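Running this now, will post back.
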Amino acid sequence: MSMQPLEFGKSAPLTMGVELELQLVNSRDCDLTRAASDLLSQVAKRRHPGEIKPEITESMIEVSTGIHSRYVPLRAELQQIRDALLEVAERLNVGVSGGGAHPFQHWSERRIMDAPRMHHVSQLYGYLAKQFTVFGQHVHIGCASGDDALYLMHAVSRYIPQLIALSAASPYYQGVDTAFDTSRLNAVSAFPLSGRAPFVRTWEEFNAFFDRVRGAGIAESMKDFYWDVRPKPEFGTIEIRVCDTPLTVERAAALAAYAQALARWLLIERPHAITEDAYLAYNYNRFQACRFGLEGEFIDPVAHTRRSIGDEVLTTLGALAVHARELESEPALREIEAIVRGGNDARWMREQYAVSGSLPDLVWRQAERLRARP
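Update: finished.
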């Protein structure tokens, strides 16, 4: 029997919103600390933009912005949310840090947040729920229709390695250098409904797919899918989920603006044919981005070319220039170019560790970097 179809909500095309998962660390040894409940109860007493919410464990929180059409107001709201959060955290003697994974915490010490959804995830996935104490940036892009959302979801898949490499900020995990620029996505990949979305082109086809999955008892809602990019029908968006949380909110805003300009280009100019062949090298390119960052190799299976992900970003920036002007996000794209030329957050973290040889010191410097104004 067919179930109630998913309705794709209305949103203004090319608007954007950001969610950031942040680390809560103690000031004694810079390990993760169970401070989310205390922090959230104090934050609730203060006026601030956006939302500050719990996440899967007591050692992390999520902040999210409102809906924006332009880069500068988005960046300003992220700064205001950060300032409000840090004011409360400092009173509680708690540090707040970006980064995709805490460099030396042990997952077995984490405590699941006391909320029905979090308990459900813990009961379903066992130890994976605690290992999911990793920290990502999610970017929502508004779409005019479900069909546009699915087109954009597939079109943007070619650029997922760029977003992974640009945002990579989790080279250290469980006390060791993983040799990956981002170790976070390896934790996400352990979930059975992760990876790439199925190749369906229309919202009608997507509803038929979801009907079969739901009918088989594989998933109950869109929240059960941990895809790299997924439609978010209740918001009328696609949600890009591959980015590590950057070390600054300013970089988070620049990454969102890059995704917005990319979406405008893809939707208006439609530069690529959308076929299943576009996914031939998807897992290979994704691995290269996680392992080697901007120096990783990108294979285009349609054009039969291969070059570095950093070079791909620079080429893409050229194609986006006119769209960045229309969106008033040229400063953001200059910051993206600066990441390619100067290195991502993973490189910065390794450079800092090379100086001190101390992972707690690295975490403290990460917290200082989040707090600092550009």
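Residues 176 and 279 are 32 Å apart (CA to CA). More later if anyone needs it.
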